[in-house]
Structure formats: C-alpha cells, structure tokens
Amino acid sequence: MKISYYISLLVIAILCLGCYTKDNVKQAEKAFITYYVDANAGDDSNRGTGPDQAFASIKKVNSLTLSAGTHVLFKSGTSYSGQLKPKGLGKAGNPIIISKYGGEDRPKINGEGKHKAAVHLYNMAYVELRDLEITNSGAERENGRRGVIVEAENCGECKHIILDNLFIHDVNGSLVKSKGGGSAILWRNHGDKYLTKFDSLIIQNCHLKDCARNGINARGYTRRDNWHPSTNVIIRNNLLEGIPGDGIVPIGTDGALIEYNVIRDCPDILSHAEAAAGIWPWSADNTLIQFNEVSGHTAKWDGQGFDSDWNCINTTIQYNYSHDNYGGFLLICNKGNTINTPSNVGTKNTIVRYNISVNDGIRPYQTERRGWFSPCMHISGPVENNYIHHNVFVFTKKESADIDRTFIQMDNWGGPWANKTLVANNHMKFIEPYRMFYGESKQTYCIDNTFETSMMDLNSSTEIPFWAKDYMNDYDENWKEKMIEVFFKNDEEMKSILNR
C-alpha cells in the first residue's frame, strides 16, 4: 500500500510541473529544432528543418511531438485548411514557439467551420503562439465554435502560455450563451482527477474581428468548495471589433490583469433574451481592469461597458474610458437566491474610480424585460461595499424623450438589495435632468459630488461612513493627467472638463 501511495504522489508531482510526461522530458533534452511549413512549395516527406526542406501541411505539424525550444514557422502569406493541434511541452526559458517566417503577412489557419476551434492548444505548457491569422466560419452558426481554444485537463499547473499578435476573425459561433455560444478565444481548465490551472496565461496585441458570440472568455473552477483559480492571467493591448456579446470575461481567476484593450462597434444582433457587456469578471477575485476603452455596446439587456459580476471579490475598475454604450457605463450585480452557497459567496469590495463615461445609457428602444431601461449605472443586489469615486460623467442630449435618464438605478436580483455603497467626489455634466433611484438599498452615501443641482435630485450625505474612511485615504492625485495621456491628448473639450 505504501509503495502505490508514493507512486501516486510522484505521478501527481510530475503532472504539476506543467503537464510533463517521461517521453516529454526526453524530448526536452534534445537539441533545439526549427521546423518550416510552406503550403505552396513544401512537401510533408521533407525533413522540415529548412525553408528549402519545408513541410506542406498542418497535419504534418500535428503528427510531431514538439520539444522544448522547438520553433514551428509557417511561411508568410500561405494558407492552411483544417485544425492546428500541436502537442509537446516546452520548459522555462525554452518555450515552444509557433509563428511565421519570410515576410510581414501572417500565415492563415482556416478551420472552415469543420472543427470546434481552428487552433487547439491542449495540455501544452511553455508555448507561444504568435503572428498568425485564424478564422473558423461554417455555413451555419454552431454552438461552441471558436477561433482558438487553450485547454488544460487533468494535468496540474500549465505555465507560460502566450497568444501574441494574432488576427482572429469571422468565427460564426452561436449567439445563444446557454447553448455554448462561441468566441474568438476560449481558455478552459478542468479535470476531476488532477486539479488543473493556468499560471502566466497572456493574451496580448491581438485583433479580434467579427467573432460571435464573444471575444475572450473562459471556463474554470468557480465553486468556492472546489476553488483552484488560474493565476497571472494578463489580457492587454487587444483590439476587439464587431463582437456582439461579451468582450473580455475572466472566469475562475485570482489577480487577473485586463488593460489597454479597445472594444468597439458591437453589432446589435443578439436577441432580447441575451445579456452581455464589455469587460467583466465572473467568479474571479482581485481582478484589475484599467486603461481600457469600451464603446458601442448594443446588447438588448445589460450592454454596459464594464461590470463587476457574480461571485467576485475585490474587483477594481479604474482609468477606463466608456462611451456610447446602449446599456450604460457600469453594472455591479449578484443573484440573491444562491448567495452564501459554495457557488456564490457574493460580490464584494468593488472599486470604481478614475473613469470617464461619456454618452452612456442611450438604448433607443424598449427592452422586453423592463421597458425603457438604460441607467448609466445599475447596482443590483445583493452586492456589498461598492466604492464609486473620482469619476467623470458626461451626459449629452438623448435622441428621444423615451430614452432612460437615470444616473444610478439600484434594485435587487432575487434577494437582498445593495448594501454599503459610496458615491463620492464624482463630477457630472448634464444637458438635461436625470434621476437617481435608491430603492431599498442600505447605507448608500453620496458625498461631495459636483453637478448642477437643478439637473438631479441627489440625497447628499455630509460625512464619509466609518466603513469607507480608511479606503478613501488612497487617492491618486494624478489620475486626470493619466487619462489625458492615454485617451485625450488631442481632445481639447475633454481636457477642459478634466481640468476643472
């Protein structure tokens, strides 16, 4: 019994090093190799180790077991049909790199809608995917169709996975979230035999265009009685265009960083049953969302630029620019009928500061759920400890008299209302009157906000509550300068508003 026990521990330890097996370790000891792939002039009978000896197909690449330090380079401007599903493991300092050679144009991987993903990285660690064009469109939309899937299953900790400078476009997944949806990029960690997580998963410098339903989303461990969050997840400097659903959604993470992304021009093609928003965590802790721009989100329900959602602790949304979103700037929400259960410990400690919201909440038609509903901020309990301060809100004239003119709408989602919400030191510029609805929320304090009192009836408090005093001592005096530098260098009007 003792021998079998120790053998089991050894197997788990090896897996936790990043999905390594004995064969993979032997492969990693080999000399570094560069393989070349050229669909036009290559041949799969070649050695593949030089441009004049290039392979011809991704099928050949998929047949290889790649070792640490191996490069697989596709000829610039060439095109490949099918699914790229490499295998092998890199190691620290010597990752596997899949990229291009011979020119500026990206090689194209076309899944043709015949595969769930055009590129599938399965149980790989220390791998970098760079400089490729990826598409996956079929004759009809299909549930779960993706451009890229990064998946780790029953293999411990998968380290150092980088997606960089990819152009992913025309992925026609389902528009229905409950049926699996679809997206440009999905990462997924799962397994009941060996608990599995990502560490140092980075998605950067990518252009995602006309992909449905979502841009970048995830699957992972989300219950608090089986909590194994991925760590060091970074999503930065990506451009998302033509994404009708959720833009960027980390799930099952701790300490995810989402920064310098742009989401724009989201087409209004979802049904009234579908809720979606720009950037938001779900079952994720200590998420930092900063220096992002979200505009033109047109989902028929929600449709905000930013959101702190279900089962999330310590979400910070700061230094962002939100504008022209149908549903508004911000959503903070949690569902009451599951609160204080293993699936939902609550949404707590959401910090929303140093953001700019311009012309948000402009949905030009009624929702099927609540009629004319598009408040600038929607806070739906049970949520606790919400700090909304030092933001700038610019409200332009609405196109019709019916469009919602609510600054903050507070309500509940099947349970208690919001508790402990501080709205302080915000500057609001109104063109026409607005309203604010507290409802049955508890301990909502509005302090030192700047606005024309004739434009809104705001029940102001005189003193910061005791539970917020320590937090409010943390203040960035240079936040306006940072916003001008990132977003408004050439916008004299916004400069003048910020400099007041």
3D architecture notes:
It is a single chain. The protein is mostly beta strands. It has one domain: Pectate Lyase C-like (3 Solenoid), CATH 2.160.20. 10% of the residues lie in helices and 37% in strands. The chain contains six helices and 41 strands. The termini are far apart. Residues 1-18 and 20-29 have low confidence and may be disordered.
Concise structural overview:
This protein is mainly β and 500 residues long.
Radius of gyration: 24 Å
The number of E-state strands comes to 41
Q: What does the oligomeric state look like here?
A: single chain
Strands ordered across the widest β-sheet: 1-3-6-9-12-15-19-22-25-29-32-35-38-41
Give the number of helices. Answer: 6
CATH topology-level fold name: Pectate Lyase C-like
Please bin the fraction of helical residues.
Answer: 10-25%
What top-tier CATH class fits best?
A: Mainly Beta
**What about the largest sheet?**
14 strands, parallel
* Beta-strand share of residues: 35-45%
Shape: elongated
Supply the CATH architecture: 3 Solenoid
| Alpha carbon gap, first and last residue | 74 Å
Can you tell me the residue ranges where pLDDT is under 50 for at least 5 consecutive residues? 1-18, 20-29
Give the domain tally: 1
- Mean pLDDT, to the nearest integer, reads 94
Task: Kindly name the structural category.
Answer: mainly beta
Topology:
Elements: H1 2-16, H2 22-28, E1 34-37, H3 58-63, E2 65-66, E3 71-75, E4 79-81, E5 87-88, E6 96-101, E7 108-110, E8 117-122, E9 127-130, E10 133-136, E11 145-153, E12 157-164, E13 167-172, E14 182-190, E15 197-204, E16 207-212, E17 214-219, E18 230-231, E19 234-236, E20 239-241, E21 253-254, E22 257-259, E23 262-264, E24 275-276, E25 288-290, E26 293-295, E27 301-302, E28 304-308, E29 316-318, E30 321-323, E31 328-333, E32 347-353, E33 356-358, E34 377-381, E35 383-389, E36 392-394, E37 406-412, E38 419-424, E39 427-429, E40 435-437, E41 442-447, H4 466-472, H5 479-487, H6 492-498
Parallel strand pairs: 1-3, 2-5, 3-6, 4-7, 6-9, 7-10, 8-11, 9-12, 10-13, 11-14, 12-15, 13-16, 14-17, 15-19, 16-20, 18-21, 19-22, 20-23, 22-25, 23-26, 24-27, 25-29, 26-30, 28-31, 29-32, 30-33, 31-34, 32-35, 33-36, 34-37, 35-38, 36-39, 37-40, 38-41
